[in-house]
Amino acid sequence: MPIPVLTTKLHAPPVRPNWVPRQRLIEGMDKGLRRRLTLVSAPAGYGKTTLITSWLEELEARLSITPQVAWLSLEEEENDLARFLTYLIAACQGVEPSIGQTILSLLDLPQLPAPNYLMTLLINDLADVPGQVVLVLNDYHVIHDPEVQAAMIFLVEHLPPQLHLIVATREEPQWPLARLRVQEQVTEIRLEDLRFTVDETVDFLNQTMGLQLSSEDVETLETRTEGWIAGLQMAALSLRGSQARRSGIRPTTLLLDDFGGTHQYVMDYLAAEVLRQQPTEIRAFLRQTAILDRFTASLCDEVTGQPNSRQFLSQLEQANLFLIQLDDQRQWYRYHSLFADFLRAELAEWEQRTLHVRASAWYESHGFVPEAIKHALAGQDLIAAARLIRGYTEEVFSRGGFSLLLSWLDALPEEFVHAHSDLSAYKGWTLYLRGQIAEAEKYATAASNRESPDDSPVQRGMLLGFRAYLAINRDQIPQAIKFAEEALVLLGNTQSFFRTTALSHLGQAQRLIGERRAAIQTLRQAVALGQQLHHDLITLEALGYLALLLYQQGDLREALLLCEKAVAEHSDAQGRPNPVAGLVYIPLGALYFETDDLDRAYHCLTTGIALCQQMGTVYFTLAGQRLLAKLQYARGDVESAWGVLTAARQLATQSENQRRIRMVNAVTAELQLREGQIEAAAYTLANLPSAVEERSEQENLAIARLYLAQNQLEAAHELLDKLEQTAHQQGRLGSLISIYLLQAMTDQALNQFAIRDPLREALVLGAQLGFRRTFLTEIEALAPQIVKRRHAAPEFVDTLLEAIPETAPIPMPPTVPLGKTQLVILRLVVDGLSNQQIADQLGITVGTTKWHLNQIYQILSVSSRTQAIAEAHRLNLL
Prior knowledge:
Mean pLDDT: 85
Distance between the termini: 76 Å
CATH architecture of the largest domain: Alpha Horseshoe
Oligomer: single chain
CATH superfamily of the largest domain: Tetratricopeptide repeat domain
Largest sheet: 5 strands, parallel
Number of helices: 48
Shape: elongated
CATH class of the largest domain: Mainly Alpha
Number of domains: 5
CATH topology of the largest domain: Serine Threonine Protein Phosphatase 5, Tetratricopeptide repeat
């Protein structure tokens, strides 16, 4: 789910009435618009925000341009890459709503992609926006997270030409500013520039603040505050309320007696003076509402327990008492940060906790659950925080907002999380999804230890679903089925995310234990329920498993339709896939590979692998890598194939899952056998279980190939018969094709053609189901036999023969002389006819022509037309 966005952070504060014109700074910012970055850097209270808002106010009138403005006021909570990008994109979407849609889908993932990748997507979106854009990041000094910093550095270094970035900060960011200075791509406005001059001080004190001070008093105040705007404002407020004026004493004399030291000392002194002058009810209001980052009248009513907050806010605004308006409707406000810090320091810890709890109650009643949780945690109201988190977890999980959930759970005391089975399960599940296996196990254990029969059915169902997930990852498949089935009973007909998850996990476990028909039915239910409830992540995961099962069953066309539809539905307006689409791009690549559409297959597999790696989805990443290795090998790119398998083996090993390691080994052994490395393949497969039932289909097929290569023909025959029987029982027509082809190769080696004809059965099935690559993989060994069985599926056989490279080394039957057709074809080759012309003249297909040419080349021991013509003349064949 997208992280909820507080929209007041996306609006520039309105320009203050009677603000002091600062023409020298405005002109400097105007010039800076031609550069990449404007950096406004100074300590608190120097008017950074006021300068920027006033500059934006009359930009069109001054420069006759109307850039679109995106504004973001940052807070400590944005020290999380997902939350930072959510707000940054929300700000940019005020300029163009389509910006960042792909990134937002990435932020729902358990494990975020690299900052540079995310920012590349954002930069590409920004580059498509017509016209000039100004992006303002206010209060950037609160950002210290390394990932956010890395993202911003990448953005600054690759800003689109029409984007101008303005950053207001108390501290210089650790960016490559030196390089930008050399390139004249940064305008810097710093403390010395922002200090009020004497003239500006006169305007501020006597006009804005309504004082009538002598030039001597103004100069004294300017000197003592060193042009510090916040200090001048606080001093003016203090002077305005002072009664010293009536005694004939110069007001600055009393004020300045104790006035000096650091800015913090000055602020504390002046704030105390100002606060002391306010009525009792205003002082209480200021102190109590200081715990709020932002507030509106009804929120203040709740926190203070008084009904007159709107009146107080109006008075504070009129008095210019460090209240900053956040919208044009005068609904939302905040205090100047320095003043808020001072006010909060006046509160006892117990009082702050009480006020936070009240704020949490208001946010909860108004539907702002994340803010309610934040204040409950700040108020140390653990019971309320846990209740709110529990109530919101379904939505978080259903949309994939794992980082947000984990941040809340991390804020709870460890012993509190461990004491509650559901909170431990949430944290363990989230950590598992992020790949933090060792830490996740601790919470999984705590969840199991604290489970109680008194827990609600939904909570118990969630916990059982979690245990099913753990059992799958631990290769405890029967237990996974048991837990998932029990979870579904408890969850009943609820619309819980955990019901969809339990269905998906049950389907995965059924697949792993060989109950494929049941798995297909279960996964169909999971997909249907997930689509109905918009549980995108778990829906596409279930669909990915379903498509691969349908492929094995022979339902190639249905699997293609399902995957193509899902890919189309999970792409943005520019056709770029959302990361969750990677879960179906992998099976889609497998399907295109089987139909021998190698270009599409390569695109889908590489796209799917990249997307799944971003999500940290190990199973589908490995499935894609295994298929990609086979595709590259089929294209003759052997080195790349081995490189992909090496990467897959590293990933499988890191996952500490033996089943995944064995999956990679099966493909490795298959390619080793195709390379003639029989001993290496035997070593690769040495640690497989001895029982056929304990091995996967791919592992059993690899063993059968090894038996053939080792000339253990009876063992191969026996194994393949068992596999055929199981495939028939489970209705796996796609699997039967591979089994039939290996049986045909075994029969050919045993010279048992009269007993049965598995090759013919394979051709009939292949033509019916649309399978091609399975045949082409074995074409060199079986081509002569396939030609003899052309009558079983003529058009299909012709398409297979057309796919054979003209110079492919195809083994030939033991015939030495050229046949009649071959002699005719050889004469036509001598005459210079192309394959198509020969096929047209003889009334055969191009594939059959190519196959005959291969026979001719093989018999004559040549590899090209030129060599064949020369050898034919030498042997007087013409």
